[in-house]
Amino acid sequence: MSVSVWVLCPSVLWLDSDFTLTENTLDCGLGIAALRAALNTKPAFVLRGLCSVFYSNFMHEMECRVLSIQSHVVRGYVGNKSASFPLQVLGFEVDSINSVQFSNHTGYSHWKGQVLTADELHVLYEGIKLNNVHHYDYVLTGYTRDTSFLEMVVDIVQELKRANPNLVYVCDPVLGDHGSMYVPENLHPVYKNKVVPVADIITPNQFEAELLTGKNISTEKDAVEVMDLLHKMGPDTVVITSSDLPSRLGDRFLVSLGSQRTCKLMPDGTKSTQRVRMEIPKVDAVFVGTGDLFAAMLLAWTHHYPNDLKTACEKTFSVMHHVIKRTISYAHELAGPGRKPSPPQLELRMVQSKADIEDPAIVMEATVLTL
Amino acid sequence: MECRVLSVQSHVVRGYVGNKSATFPLQVLGFEVDSINSVQFSNHTGYAHWKGQVLTADELNVLYEGIKLNNVNHYDYVLTGYTRDTSFLETVVDIVQELKRLNPKLVYVCDPVMGDQGSMYVPENILPVYRDKVVAVADILTPNQFEAELLTGRKISTEKDALEVMDLLHQMGPDMVVLTSTDLISPHGDQFLVALGSQKMVRADGTTSTQKIRMEMPKVDAVFVGTGDLFAAMLLAWTHHHPKDLKAACEKTVSVLHHVIKRTITYANKMAGPGKRPSPAQLELRMVQSKKDIEYPAIVVEAIVL
């Protein structure tokens, strides 16, 4: 990649630097000096923004380590298979503990495999700890069926937070959808009383948000109150990934909402809250692994936009849109006209969506709610 | 690109060996990677400590059964590496044979990991399984000199020996053999090591020919883990794109390794500090940071056609 920088100085002198950017190494010491000179020259202020974007992009190699504890499937994209590749493509180091290893997700006609016990999880963590490499910037968890496993996860998160108080725990509190639970009921109190209190970002759907707070959501006002209740329980960032609220764009759209407690303080000393709303086009198919991809991408985009939930959500939902659109096109092509695609055909086109993951074109606008 | 790889290798929570080393680069190059994790360890066994669980041959079978019951046992490639268990390896052979019945064009890329520099670091009883069962169904083989000697029962002292050993390996099964490292003397001096490759091809008239190549690679003063796994995965990728051009495939593969290793050693030395030897944790491959080099490797080595 080569960049030409032209700068007009007040003494009508052109400074023209041609230098090569490599990923990590500064092969252009002279170029950097020229760039610094360029940035300090007043008439070049339009270019200044451009330069500093190039400058900061290649000066800063991201050092960000995520511990992701999720399922592994041999074939397809759910759990860690859904989360790892996109995060790695965005430059995150992903350490992954596979909570299960199955042939494929459980929406296929058949599935087979093995599960990790809470003890085995602990053993793996012990290995990391004995080597003194248990230092993480993020923890990411999703679908779990076992209460003792989940409780072990909480212990691990608490210890990792003691080792790094800035650690951000991104938690998808997977309990169910559309009014019914699809995990054992005894997970509910564990999430409510132990997990959510140590979470920093949570991504419940409407049903899960209602379960965790004990409050029903019928209006946007209800949803905002539920998100405030969730903030009180722990997380500063809450995204209700899908709801039954009527969309202003009609019934082909669903409504998602987000809420973030920011560092800015209100005049009365309380934290200010940014709330956003998104209208998401519905797709007539059942996808698996999209929630896992969502949580992973929300991790990535809140990392880059820590105080701007609007932008983080726009990027995250846009990635989802591109992946889903590519997936449904391909699935229909494989299934043939008039036929419903099968679960294997509906596997997310993850690898094919690399460019969209790296640099998602924004396809929706999040509205900031003013209340 | 619609190309599906079944990779049966180790998984480590932290770091890059086995499936962790192979999967991301292949995915970045557009391959669909189905991965069966033969073990799950906290990290590779070169660290001071390591902990985890292994998959038994039965459990491997169970996972494969799941794939088969859904009628999705269709692969273009199989990729395997470090294995310690003979029954596990035998189950892998059964699976490869069945997958080849379903897709006769399937290419099995096999790294016959047994040891290096004259000593074995897997149980001795793995050798007969590789020699008598695995190599026979392999299409691409990436032994080091020691492993090539073990498999053929022949010592390599000269380039001529190495070429003969590769021909013997062709006769045992694989049409492509790459001797990933040897003790042969490099004309560039002792800071370089010699790698060799041989590809057997069938001409239009039905006769066979072999293309043999030689590469000199700069030695690096550090112990890396996972580089062999990355090599086999990238050889899979680049032979896929250059199926009749071993020279081009090897130049790309070796170049990717060079870029990743260079980035890794630079970072490791920075982390360790001046005058200190980097630790295994610091020497983990800078895989994610090397994405661009994996996608578009600048060629930094020339393979000579012999």
Automatic annotation (TrEMBL), chain A:
SUPFAM superfamilies: Ribokinase-like
Main location as per UniProt: cytoplasm
UniProt keywords, alphabetically: Acetylation, ATP-binding, Cytoplasm, Kinase, Magnesium, Metal-binding, Nucleotide-binding, Phosphoprotein, Sodium, Transferase
Pathway noted in the entry: Cofactor metabolism; pyridoxal 5'-phosphate salvage; pyridoxine 5'-phosphate from pyridoxine: step 1/1; Cofactor metabolism; pyridoxal 5'-phosphate salvage; pyridoxamine 5'-phosphate from pyridoxamine: step 1/1; Cofactor metabolism; pyridoxal 5'-phosphate salvage; pyridoxal 5'-phosphate from pyridoxal: step 1/1
InterPro entries: PM/HMP-P_kinase-1, PyrdxlKinase, Ribokinase-like
Tagged with keyword Phosphoprotein: yes
EC code(s) of this entry: 2.7.1.35
Gene Ontology molecular function terms on file: ATP binding; metal ion binding; pyridoxal kinase activity
Domain Pyridoxamine kinase/Phosphomethylpyrimidine kinase span(s) in chain numbering: 141-332
Pfam families named among the record's database cross-references: Phos_pyr_kin (PF08543)
Class of the enzyme per the UniProt entry, highest EC level: transferase
Cofactor(s) required for function per UniProt: Zn(2+); Mg(2+)
GO biological process, one term: pyridoxal 5'-phosphate salvage
Catalytically driven reaction(s): pyridoxamine + ATP = pyridoxamine 5'-phosphate + ADP + H(+); pyridoxal + ATP = pyridoxal 5'-phosphate + ADP + H(+); pyridoxine + ATP = pyridoxine 5'-phosphate + ADP + H(+)
Any Gene Ontology CC annotation: cytosol
PANTHER family per the UniProt record, alphabetical: PYRIDOXAL KINASE
NCBIfam families registered for this protein in UniProt: pyridox_kin
Quaternary organization: Homodimer.
Similarity comment: family membership: Belongs to the pyridoxine kinase family.
Function recorded in the entry: Catalyzes the phosphorylation of the dietary vitamin B6 vitamers pyridoxal (PL), pyridoxine (PN) and pyridoxamine (PM) to form pyridoxal 5'-phosphate (PLP), pyridoxine 5'-phosphate (PNP) and pyridoxamine 5'-phosphate (PMP), respectively. PLP is the active form of vitamin B6, and acts as a cofactor for over 140 different enzymatic reactions.
Protein name per its UniProtKB record: Pyridoxal kinase
Organism annotation: Oncorhynchus tshawytscha
Automatic annotation (TrEMBL), chain B:
Domain Pyridoxamine kinase/Phosphomethylpyrimidine kinase: residue ranges: 80-269
Keyword annotations: Acetylation, ATP-binding, Cytoplasm, Kinase, Magnesium, Metal-binding, Nucleotide-binding, Phosphoprotein, Sodium, Transferase
Gene3D superfamilies: 3.40.1190.20
EC id: 2.7.1.35
Main location: cytoplasm
Keyword Acetylation among record annotations: yes
Biological or metabolic pathway of the protein: Cofactor metabolism; pyridoxal 5'-phosphate salvage; pyridoxine 5'-phosphate from pyridoxine: step 1/1; Cofactor metabolism; pyridoxal 5'-phosphate salvage; pyridoxal 5'-phosphate from pyridoxal: step 1/1; Cofactor metabolism; pyridoxal 5'-phosphate salvage; pyridoxamine 5'-phosphate from pyridoxamine: step 1/1
Cellular component, GO, one term: cytosol
GO molecular function, one term: metal ion binding
Pfam families: Phos_pyr_kin
Residues of the signal peptide: none
Cofactor(s) named in the record: Mg(2+); Zn(2+)
An individual GO BP term: pyridoxal 5'-phosphate salvage
Catalyzed reactions per annotation: pyridoxine + ATP = pyridoxine 5'-phosphate + ADP + H(+); pyridoxamine + ATP = pyridoxamine 5'-phosphate + ADP + H(+); pyridoxal + ATP = pyridoxal 5'-phosphate + ADP + H(+)
Domain of life: Eukaryota
InterPro entries found in the cross-reference section: PM/HMP-P_kinase-1, PyrdxlKinase, Ribokinase-like
Keyword Metal-binding among record annotations: yes
Annotated localization: Cytoplasm, Cytosol
Protein function: Catalyzes the phosphorylation of the dietary vitamin B6 vitamers pyridoxal (PL), pyridoxine (PN) and pyridoxamine (PM) to form pyridoxal 5'-phosphate (PLP), pyridoxine 5'-phosphate (PNP) and pyridoxamine 5'-phosphate (PMP), respectively. PLP is the active form of vitamin B6, and acts as a cofactor for over 140 different enzymatic reactions.
Subunit record text: Homodimer.
Family in the record: Belongs to the pyridoxine kinase family.
NCBIfam families per the UniProt record, alphabetical: pyridox_kin
Name of this protein: Pyridoxal kinase
Gene label: pdxka
